[in-house]
Amino acid sequence: MRTMYKFALIVLAIVLFAGVAGCASRQPAGPVTIHVLTMDQAGLKPAEIDQIAREFEAKNPDIKIVMEYQSYDFIHDKIVTGMAANPPAYDAAMLDVIWPDEFIKAGYLLDVTDRLTPDMKSGMFPASWNGVTRNGKVYGMPWLMDVKYFMYNKDMLQKAGIAEPPKTWEELVEQAKTIKEQGTVEYPIIWSWNQKEGVVCDYAVLLYGNGGEFVDKDGKPAFNNEKGVQALTWMKQTIDDGLSNPSSVSADENAVRDNFIAGESAFAVNWLFQYSDSNDASKSTIVGQAAFSPMPVFQAGADAGVKGSSVDGSSAFAIMATTPYPDQTWKFLTYLASNEVQTKYSAEMLPVWKVDFEGEALEKLKAATPNNPVTVPAFLAQFPYAYERPSVPYYNEASAALQLAIQEALTGVKSPQQALDDAAAKWVKLAGQ
Amino acid sequence: MATNSIKRRLTLREQDVRTAWLLLAPSLLIMLGVTLWPVISTFILSFFHAPTGINQVRTFVGFVNYIEMLRDQLFWETIERTLYFTLVSVGLELTLGLAIAQLIHSRPWGWKFLRFSLIIPWAVPTIVNGAMWRWIYSADFGALNGLLMQLGLIDHYVPWLTLPDMAMNLVIVADVWHTMPFVALVLQAALAGVPEDLDEAAAVDGANAWQRFWKIRVPLLRPAILVALIVRTVDAFRVFDIVYIITSGGPAYKTLTITYLTYLNSFAFGKQGTGAALSFLISTFTIIMAFVYIKFLYHPEETQ
Fold first, then answer.
1. Distance from CA of B253 to the nearest CA of A (A)
2. Which of A58, A98, A372, B217 maximizes the CB count within 10 A of its CB?
3. B187 CB within 8 Å of a chain A CB
């Protein structure tokens, strides 16, 4: 019996030891594997990013890239849970323009200031760098330059006898009424107004187009003033009038794209990627019909001197602070952001390189893909008017309060004034914590 | 010698006990590691202000996380919504499950196929089920709109998931479709164990089918109903994935359930302490519910 116990104990010890040892050994003998998390939404398609990764691997046989794609709305929480492990689940992840404050405070992001070359610093848009820089330190590599665009269906407008796309939201309402009355589509306008970040982006476009702002000079919430309430009231009114598709209230940007390219709507506000999908004959019924026009503003805003309005939706790639492979990860991020890659893959995502939009390079960029003759001028017209969402560590919770307020107003649970006042009170409370 | 032999026998028993502990040790260790330790550390966490992040400073705040939640109107609204979800979905699952179990038990033509096809919705992963129902409810391309249009019940497509009073009921339908088969199969298995002679004797005494069902089968099914009720109630109260996929708590938080609120606090808002406190509040609620069930439904002396 005794020998049996000893034997059993030894077996147990071996099993436990092997288990512990198995957990500890992650250092591989062969090439290093880099795990990268990014979105399957705006910007490049997974297939294109995979292709870039394979090109990179061919040039760097000692590094293997494993990409993981998620819907945008899941990325933030994926990063948070991925960072609970050590080493982290991802060596690099997409960094949306609204996250750096929170993630820097959490210690998730590697400071890459010393890794930048002068070419990168001077060659890319200052706005791209601002998105990843806090207190003079840089925490990511710019990747995607995006703003919300106003797109319309040329053929539908022509059919309705409308010569010019709208310059103000009031004109949009008139044109939408005409199109609806003619029965071309039931709901002429589609938006991403679901209870996610997308609705805050669309609201930002309308808020700033009415001369409003999220927070005033002192950092106090200002979206619940007259201008913000007018913008939200207008949103609700267009649903009540049957001009904005009521399904907007449950639609994200992908749903907006699906609706627009199925020929179900005449006007849509979305990121750049919608344009290339609208010309993809394998899924679009409106090939050749989509067109850009500068984002309308409210008449009152225009009278007060507002020239344009959009929202910055840029993102970068950040190296996770606890990765065992910062050098290899940086090498890949540098490749992703390289001018050569960004120009080659510019059909859905324009380069973060300012130098590409100047002089001879601009002509080269316009010729790089069939979309670029249209998207490059659209970008140059819209980009100067892209506003930022507030830059605070508690942005996510503040945004959730605003998303709730907008949904409460849109579904008639609260009045726009009441809903926005409640959200503003929450912002004040969060700022005080 | 006599004392010696008694002592020896005791030692043997002791040895048996030792063997038992030794054999149990691996599973106990694993249970301690993956169940008890997380529970304890979550409990400790619930008394701290604990922002997510690496090397974050945690400050002890006592019961503040609990008090803040119990004072928050959103918390109580969410509890109310979650109870509504639980009561309606478990009620429907039990009613439909019992009806279908009885149907299968009466062995109609094709009952084997019925029992087989019952497993399919249950075998579908919840995430897949949620994604499927989201498409069914889709405002622009959904099958529900298509069906109602063809039947002439609606004259234009309805954006179902944007209707504040409707969204939760639609999530319930999706959940019932998915989990009702579990209840039906549990009850069907229990029905198979009900002795036929009791039923026949009652029939001879003049009890009709309805009376026999309620007075004989249902009481004998009580232990199985109890199991199904406890499992389903606790599960339904902690519903997360199906809400996450179909509505993400929208519109205007009208489908926000208590686990979703916990998730938001822990991962989206970076408040681990609040999330931990919420987890413990959820546990308290589920323990109370299980206790109530056992108190009112579990009478072992009757079934023996």
1. 7
2. A98
3. no
The dihedrals phi and psi of A352, each to the nearest 5 degrees, come to: -85, 5
Listed as ranges, residues in chain B with pLDDT below 70 are: 1-10, 300-304
Q: Which residues of B touch A15 (CB under 8 A)?
A: 26
Per-residue pLDDT band at A25 (split at 50, 70, 90): very low
Residues in B closer than 8 angstroms to A16, CB to CB, are 29
CB–CB contact B252 A407 (8 Å): yes
Cα–Cα distance for residue pair A279/A288, rounded to 1 Å: 6
Domains of chain A: 32-146+313-383 (3.40.190.10), 149-311 (3.40.190.10)
Average pLDDT, chain A: 91
Give pLDDT tens digits for A100-119.
999 999 999 999 999 999 99
pLDDT band for A161, please (50, 70, 90 cuts): very high
Q: pLDDT-based confidence at A32, cuts 50/70/90? A: very high
The token pair that represents B163 in the structure block = 């209707």
- B59 Cβ under 8 Å from any chain A Cβ: no
B165 in contact with A at a CB cutoff of 8 Å? no
Q: What are phi and psi of B265, to 5 degrees?
A: -65, -45
pTM for the model: 0.86
Q: Please determine, for the modelled complex, whether the ipTM score is greater than 0.90.
A: no
Phi, psi of B57 (to 5 degrees): -80, 125
DSSP 8-state symbol, B265: I
Instruction: Using a CB–CB cutoff of 8 Å, tell me whether A304 touches chain B.
Output: no
In chain A, which among 255-294 make CB contacts under 8 A with chain B? 255, 258-259, 262, 264
Nearest by CB to residue B140, choosing from A80, A194, A247, is A247
First vs last C-alpha separation in chain A: 64
3-class secondary-structure state, position A312: strand
User: Which domains, and CATH codes, for chain B?
Assistant: 2-45 (no CATH), 66-303 (1.10.3720.10)
Question: Tokens 């339908």 identify what position?
Answer: B173
- Residue B58 burial (C-beta neighbours within 10 Å; 0-12, 13-18, 19+): middle
In A, which residues are within 8 Å of B78 by CB distance? none
pLDDT for position B5 = 52
